Amino acid sequence: MRRGYYIAGNWKMHKTRGEAIELAAALTAGLKDGEHKYLVAPSFTALEAVGSIVKGTNILLGAQDVASEEQGAHTGEVSVLQLKDLGVQVIILGHSERRHTYKEDDALINKKVKLALKHGFEVILCVGETLEEREAGQAEVVCESQTIWGLSGISAADVAKITIAYEPVWAIGTGKTATPEDADAIHAYIRKVIARLYGQSVADSIIIQYGGSVKPENAAQLMAKENIDGALVGGASLKADTFVPIAKFA
Ligand code: 13P
């Protein structure tokens, strides 16, 4: 079964280097007796500084994206080699803001997943439907397709390094959280897709995080669901006062 809960903070395009240092220091203090797996994903510009603070603690260092090529003439992009050099351990891929605002498609995301795995990173692969898709009854099929695409060509051994994050687009940054029941139903569905692809024991052990307006007030109800194994937190990860209680949900 699952190896326990995994709570991650995606800081998105927030925090100067100084602010990031301050938050990282508060989190290492606040979470040092925490019992779960933890991650913070600051902007590229703060990775090195935050990395030096969380190194050797129970908080992993994550990046929010990576280029699909190893290196070369790709102005504005950041490579796996550069992330490895900074001590990054995990890369978040396929976030809905990358899919929808920056038009990343499934093939590109899959290429990034493979490259990240090749270089030894863990990956958080994000999937999730838009409001329009949910209202059209397509939530399951959209998540299924994004999961299959994202994992295409990835071995069962490598899947052990992947976490899925279900982030319904309509719940991100909107204050609207999926009900624990709705989220759990999609998580169960994604787990079934994984079972079909990799077998039941891989499906039973893969961590599936929920993301979308997770707050201290709703974290425990979400985590109580059978198929919800953690959270990918945006807004509430920007302050220790809100992230620590989520990370230590009771
Ligand atoms: P919010 O928690 O701000 O809704 O963001 C969720 C998210 O996108 C995390 O990756």
Key traits:
alpha/beta, 8-stranded parallel beta sheet, binds 1,3-dihydroxyacetonephosphate, single chain, 12 helices, TIM Barrel, 250 residues
What do you see in this structure?
- With 250 residues, the chain is of the alpha/beta class.
- It has a single domain (6-247), classed as Aldolase class I (TIM Barrel), CATH 3.20.20.
- 43% of the residues lie in helices and 15% in strands.
- The chain is built from twelve helices and eight strands.
- Strands 7-6-5-4-3-2-1-8 form an eight-stranded parallel β-sheet.
- The longest helix has 19 residues, at 180-198.
- The protein is globular, with a radius of gyration of 17 Å.
- 44% of the residues are buried.
- The mean pLDDT is 97.
- 1,3-dihydroxyacetonephosphate (13P) is lined by residues 10, 95, 167, 172-173, 211-214, 232-236.
Break the fold down into its secondary structure elements and pairings:
Elements: E1 6-10, H1 17-31, E2 37-41, H2 47-54, E3 59-63, H3 80-85, E4 90-93, H4 96-101, H5 106-118, E5 122-127, H6 131-135, H7 139-150, H8 156-159, E6 162-166, H9 180-198, H10 200-205, E7 208-210, H11 219-223, E8 230-233, H12 240-247
